[in-house]
Request: fold
Amino acid sequence: MREIARHAQVAAICDTDGATLAAASRLYPGARVYRRYADLIEDGALEAVAICVPDHQHAPIALSSLAAGLHCFCQKPMATTIDDVRRMSRAAGNATELRTQVSLDGLAHARATQVIGAIREGALGDVLELHAWTDRPGSYWDALGDPPAATRPTSFDWEQWLGETEYEGAYRPWSSPGQWRGWRALGTGALGDMGTHNCALAFAALGVTAPASAEGRWGASEPDRYPPWSRLRFVLQTKDRGDIPMQWYDGGPRPPLRLFGQIRRDENGCVIVGTRGRCYLPGSLNRYAYFLPSRRFATLRLPPLREMLGTIPDWLRACSTGAATSFPFDGIAANISEVMLYGNAATAGPQMTSVAGR
Reply:
C-alpha cells in the first residue's frame, strides 16, 4: 500500500481484520474503509484494485474486480486451483482495456533481464534439467498445523476471511501471515509460496509454458494439509526447447552439493544445468547469479542492463498510459502458477502418482 501511495491515490482500503484496517486508515485518513471486498468493488469511484490477501481469496476478488471494470494487481501465486488460474487468465485476456499484473518481483529488475538474456543466448548450451528447492514448510509455517484458538478476536471477521473456501475447521490465529499456507483450502503450500519465486527466472529464460507431468514422494499429512516435505520430478513443456525435467525439493530434501561447487547452498534457490555449465540462483528474488564452474565462465559477458520498474510502478504506469504490463494474468504468471498447482495435485494422491499436464 505504501508503494502504491508513491504513485497513486489510496482511495479505499478493505480488510477483514478491524485492527489492521484501523492502522491502515491512520496512514491514509482520507481513504474510505470497508470490511467486505464486495463493498469496496462497488465503491464506484475506484479505477484499480490491488489484491494483497491470502491465496484463497485471490481469484474471487480478481474476477469480481475485472467484471466491475477495474484494473487489477494480484500477489503471487494467482490462485489455489488451476481452474481459477485459467478463469483469471481468460478474464484478463477478454478485458483488453484493463491492465493486470502479478507480483513476480524476482523478474522485475535489471539483473534478472541480464541473466535471462545470457541463458537465451546459449551461455549454458542445451539445458538438461532444473533443480529448485525451499526450506518451507517448517521454517515459515508449522507443517503439523497450529492448534485452534480458544477465543476469536472480536475485530476479526472470520466468515468474510474464509469466503467460499471448503475449510470447515475451527478458528485459528491466522491474523499473523503464514500458517494458512499449509492448508489446501486456503494456501498453495511450499510450491505456490516459494516455487513461484524460485523458479520464475528459469521459467522465463527457458520459455516454460505448461507442466507435462509431476510425480514423486512426500511426507504423510492430514488430507486437508500439504505434506511436511516433498521430492517431486516434473516434466516441463517449453516453447521451443522441448520437454525439460525439473527436480523439486521442500521441507528438508535438498539438491546435491556437487551442483554448487565452492558456493554455499542457500535455503532457497534454483539451478539450471546445461551442457556447458550451470547457473545457480540463490534465494528467491534472483538478485544474484553464479555461472559455474567459475573458471569456465570467467570471461562471460552478460547482456547490457535493461532497467525495469517494480511490479507495482509498472502496473500503475500501464493503468495510466494504456501500455502493456510485464506480468499480466494471461502471461508467464499463469504458466508458473499452473506448474506449481500440478505439483500440489500430485501430493494430494498416493505416492509416485503421476499427474498429466494439459
In short: Residues 332-347 form the longest helix (16 residues). The chain is about 30% helix and 20% strand.
